[in-house]
Amino acid sequence: MTPEPPRLSPRQRYLENRQRKQNLTFSVIFSVMAVLVIISLLSILGLVSLPLPSGFSDGGKYADEGDVPCPATATTPLDPSSVTVQVLNATSRAGLAGDASSMLDKAGFQTKEVGNASSEYAGAVEIDAGPRAVDAAYTVARYFPESRVTLTDSTDTTVTVILGGFYEGVLSDEEIEKVAQDVSVLSGPATCLPLNPETVGSESGEQSGESGQSGTQSGEQSGQ
């Protein structure tokens, strides 16, 4: 005959019930945390999009001078004839700016006289633009693979292209034609920041004669 299990005292029953509730609570907490971690990882990998409120991901931060700005939403490339571009050579290799400017001229852009940048640029291509010329800058950037659009405090609409040490040269005629026919919506890198609507609105006055951009033309023209 099986002996009956010993009866638990009221205190033992209380401790047993408390332990059971604690185990259940911890199990629920760990399960929720595991689900949140999985969702976070999927979101980081881009496999799941979270319905975050507008402005939550960037904390309401707008592009400032030196940042990479985003083009306007759902904007297609601008008409090249409406975009003015100046090309500056930021290397010791002669002729780069002239060749690049000729390529842009062939693509239909309004080009200004080429020049030398005030200092060397170690990257490939930096494209400087004020708040009013960001879409124009992204239109130009399509002709310069590996280029980086940078926001300046310029009130002008001129786009400045700065050719650096890693610039690989102009596109072929076939490549120029291919880019010209592409009317896909302009897009910036994942790290780009939106423009402050108030800043863009405040730049609607007269264009200044100076671009005010980081690649200021130097007096010498020997490396164009």
Structural commentary:
The radius of gyration is 29 Å and the shape is rod-shaped. With 224 residues, the protein is of the alpha/beta class. Strands 1, 2, 3, 4, 5 and 6 form a six-stranded mixed β-sheet that branches. It has helices at residues 10-44, 96-106, 134-141, 173-181, 197-202, and strands at 84-89, 110-111, 115-116, 125-129, 147-151, 159-163. It is built from five helices and six strands, in the order αβαβββαββαα. Strand 4, helix 3 and strand 5 (147-151) form a beta-alpha-beta unit.
Topology:
Elements: H1 10-44, E1 84-89, H2 96-106, E2 110-111, E3 115-116, E4 125-129, H3 134-141, E5 147-151, E6 159-163, H4 173-181, H5 197-202
Parallel strand pairs: 1-2, 1-3, 1-6, 4-5
Antiparallel strand pairs: 4-6
Biggest sheet statistics:
6 strands, mixed
Number of helices, counting only DSSP H or I runs of 4 residues or more? 5
The helix/strand series, from N terminus to C terminus, equals HEHEEEHEEHH
Question: What class would the helix/strand composition place it in?
Answer: alpha/beta
List descriptors.
six-stranded mixed sheet; disordered C terminus; 5 helices; alpha/beta; rod-shaped; 224 residues
Characterize this entry briefly.
With 224 residues, this protein is an alpha/beta fold. Helices cover 31% and strands 11% of the residues.
